Amino acid sequence: MSDADDTVLGLFPLGITLLPGEVVPLHIFEERYKKLIGERLEGGEFGIVLAEEDAVREAGTSARVVQLVEELDDGRMDVLVQGRRRFRIVGIHEPEDPAADYLRARVAFFDDVEEEAPRELRDAVLEVFGRMLELMDVESPREPAGEGSLSFRVAAAVDFGAPLKQELLESLSEEQRLETLLTVITSLLPRLEVRKEREEAIRGNGKGY
User: Fold this and answer.
1) By CB count within 10 A, which of 121, 137, 158, 178 is most buried?
2) Do residue 88 and residue 181 come from a single domain?
3) pTM, entire model
4) Among 64, 51, 147, 48, residue whose Cα is nearest residue 105
5) Nearest to 156 by CA among 81, 57, 92
């Protein structure tokens, strides 16, 4: 399952789950993470892991800085980072000064055991995903662009929340991930339809009932 020997990554624990291919903005203001990101502005990967209370999840995603949006005189930065490879933490190295330096971890990268999913399942997910976007008033809804697994592209396009995204991240099956998304999106559609009807009623007569 591992595609490489153990690698040491600097860790950035956050309240989000980053998926492979996903691009997210980060505001860097703590000294330890100024150091981490500063060391990787010219290249190299670091690890983003979901932080929960006093612990971090075992599985995370490596990331690269794709754009330095702004850097202030005091070292604070706004950057865009993109998810790359999934990993599992093998061991964590605590820094001597946690306020000034960042966590490091030995990680093992992993891929899916099953890479393909039935065409019918892919089509079904895209159908309900398109309907969801229509109900959210997204203009010209279409399949999420980018490379990589459809499940990750769909999950990155809408805020499904960290718990679901973490479940998808840890799954080793594209088919399983798409089935999960199909169930979740299908369950959301009735509520979105009701909200849409109420919004149209308000626009039509100023009343929500």
Assistant:
1) 178
2) no
3) 0.88
4) 48
5) 81
- Count of structural domains within the chain: 2
Average pLDDT over residues 73-84: 95
- Residue 36 one-letter amino acid: L
d(C-alpha 3, C-alpha 52), whole Å: 27
Structural domain containing residue 20? 7-109
At 207 the pLDDT is 54
Asked whether residue 114 is domain-assigned, the answer is no
Cβ–Cβ < 8 Å for 186, 130: no
Give 176: exposed, middle or buried? Use CB within 10 Å, 0-12, 13-18, 19+: middle
Distance of CA 49 to the CA centre of its chain: 10
| Sequence-ordered alpha helix ranges (H) in the chain | 31-38, 119-135, 150-157, 162-170, 174-205
- Give residue-wise pLDDT tens across range 87-143: 999 999 999 998 899 999 999 999 999 778 999 999 999 999 999 999 999 887 788
